[in-house]
Specification:
2 domains, two-stranded antiparallel ribbon, 8 helices
Length: 240
């Protein structure tokens, strides 16, 4: 049993691309797990104040990425085994799985592009509400609420090395800290405004997800072509 000529070359190319696909699935799974447990994002996304939680949109995307990485590893193994065994059934199943994965990836890409700024905006909105509460409670001398809000705000500031919504509030908050009225800004001294830092943090991570998705899409297109060519070659081979 075995294909010959160009079809045999396609067989080994498909095996090679499937092995790369399997490795890529492992890398995506590893990156997704890192994004899920990254100390910077985890410390911010697990914050809570007065029953209000930090937005979970980012974690939803990461959990989808974890599922995609795991499925890719399974499908990649299926493709490798199907190519080596020259099984039309396995290759057909592999092709169907690839089509479904590719459709899901395109849909997720469109959704992600339409909502690429949502994570940052939601986190900035949550930060603003905490900041306003901390400052308001400081002015009204509400020690209990002030302490809770200040604790959450301090996590933001220390994690991102930032202080305040913009340049003006950053400057005013640092003056307030110097006068001993508050203790909100990071101890390192020089810091940027938090709106800018939040945007940079989540934008960088979303671009990382986008690059990974683009690489996977290119590999999947080649694999779909090779799997169909190999299937046709096996069907038309005189050996079978």
């Amino acid at each position: 049993m075995g294909v010959e000529g160009c079809t045999k070359c396609i067989k080994y190319l498909l095996f090679f691309f499937n092995f790369i696909f399997w490795l890529t699935g492992g890398v995506i799974l590893g990156v997704a797990l890192w994004l899920r447990h990254d100390p910077q994002t985890s410390s911010l996304l697990e914050l809570e104040l007065d029953g209000a939680h930090a937005p979970s949109t980012f974690y939803i995307s990461v959990h989808i990425l974890i599922a995609v990485g795991a499925v890719m590893m399974v499908v990649g193994f299926l493709g490798c085994y199907g190519a080596i065994q020259e099984s039309q059934c396995l290759l057909g199943t592999f092709f169907a799985c690839l089509v479904i994965l590719f459709a899901c990836e395109v849909a997720a890409g469109i959704w992600g592009f339409m909502h690429k700024d949502t994570v940052s905006k939601e986190m900035i909105s949550f930060y603003d509400s905490v900041y306003d509460k901390a400052i308001t409670d400081t002015m009204t001398a509400d020690s209990t609420n002030r302490k809770a809000a200040a604790t959450v705000l301090k996590v933001f500031h220390d994690t991102l090395n930032c202080c305040g919504k913009g340049h003006a509030t950053s400057w005013l908050t640092q003056i307030s800290d110097t006068l001993g009225i508050t203790d909100l800004c990071p101890n390192s001294g020089l810091s940027s405004n938090c709106h800018k830092s939040i945007n940079e943090l989540f934008t960088d991570k979303i671009y990382l997800i986008g690059i990974a998705a683009l690489v996977v899409a290119v590999i999947m297109i080649f694999e779909m072509i090779f799997s169909m060519v190999l299937c046709c070659g096996i069907r038309n081979s005189p050996v079978y």
